[in-house]
Write a structure and sequence with these properties.
The chain has 331 residues and is mainly alpha-helical. The protein contains 13 helices and five strands. It has a three-stranded parallel β-sheet. Strand 4, helix 8 and strand 5 form a beta-alpha-beta unit. Helix 7 crosses helix 8, helix 9 runs antiparallel to helix 12 and helix 10 crosses helix 12. The two termini are 31 Å apart. The mean pLDDT is 94.
């Protein structure tokens, strides 16, 4: 019996290569060895997106992107979070076992509070209850299907740790009713730099979209920030934003060759940027065409997502019923 691995993507904007390297590819790598579930976390997106048309389009965009990148709906369970009604009852039960102090320490909430204090605002200005309780809904996503592992980036590790803490709290009171999950972090892919050198993030507007057209892709790559060293100057490859993306898409021998060129001098940043652009355009080019076909056939996307939801609900039902009995809700 395979262990269960679960991954979710919040549909808050166009997916970028940081998402691909940090979450999508590591999650895809689990398919052969785990029973894998992938979901589009549309209810999570409500903490920031209030326009219904934008949210719907973002859901389809995530679905089309994952399928175009090679997600095989015959091998995985792929669904919309909002198509699983059990998630909300389960979230309430977990809320009743979650210490407020645990949520006070959640990174997303603390970041907003810190920003408010730095701006001389009230600590909880513009903080909605959804943002505050976000980790509990995420814990419900993880625990409802008996997930054993959750592939996440280092910056998302805390969410799995909170899910573990909540599962342990439930089990300590109710018996061993929940599987305690483990974060699965690919150590070689920690933080992907954006074009400005900070972590690639929609929040920083520094991303390289996965399916940008060739012209837009080249423009973003050429905007990647570098230092002022001349081509003939020796350079430190691991300090270069371009190389730190290039190394994930080039063949090992090309990576080794370019590393030597950095260290010994003779490599212009414009040259390595052009090589990176060509690699990305070749890697995502055919998949880009598939994406456009999928995004223009929303009925097909709905059929895939609805089929996955049927399977996910079948997994969620026994877990929720076991927890309901354990807390005294079921007769």
């Amino acid at each position: 019996m395979k262990q269960i691995a679960l991954s979710g993507i919040k549909p808050t904007g166009t997916l970028h290569i940081g998402n691909f390297l940090g979450m999508i590819k590591p999650a895809f790598d689990l398919i052969e060895n785990f029973q894998t579930l992938y979901f589009v976390a549309d209810y999570h997106a409500l903490t920031t997106i209030k326009n219904k048309d934008t949210l719907k389009q973002n859901v389809y965009d995530v679905a089309a992107t994952l399928l175009a990148l090679g997600l095989d709906q015959e091998k995985v369970i792929f669904f919309r979070q909002s198509d699983i009604p059990q998630i909300f009852e389960f979230t309430w039960i977990l809320n009743c076992f979650t210490a407020k102090g645990l949520l006070n320490r959640a990174h997303a909430y603390k970041a907003v509070v810190d920003d408010n204090l730095n701006a001389a605002k009230q600590p909880d200005a513009d903080v909605n209850a959804g943002l505050y309780n976000y980790p509990v809904l995420m814990a419900a996503d993880i625990l409802l299907y008996g997930s054993h592992v959750v592939p996440v980036g280092q910056d998302q590790r805390q969410h799995v740790e909170i899910a573990r803490d909540i599962a342990v709290a439930v089990n300590n009171i109710c018996g061993e009713v929940l599987t305690v999950p483990e974060p699965l972090i690919q150590e070689t892919v920690m933080t992907i730099p954006g074009i400005d050198g900070r972590k690639m993030s929609k929040n920083y507007n520094n991303t390289i979209p996965i399916f940008a057209d060739a012209e837009a892709l080249r423009k973003q790559v050429m905007r990647i920030v570098t230092d002022s060293k001349r081509p003939e100057d020796p350079k430190e490859p691991d300090a270069c934003n371009v190389f730190n993306i290039f190394k994930y898409f080039a063949l090992p021998e090309a990576v080794a060759s370019r590393r030597n060129a950095y260290l010994n001098g003779g490599l212009a940043y414009s040259e390595i940027k052009q090589e990176l652009y060509e690699l990305l355009n070749e890697f995502f080019g055919d998949r880009r065409e598939t994406y456009h076909q999928l995004i223009n056939d929303k009925d097909h996307l709905d059929r895939i997502l609805n089929g996955g939801a049927d399977k996910a609900r079948a997994m969620a039902g026994p877990v929720l019923e076991r927890v309901r009995r354990a807390v005294g809700i079921s007769r």
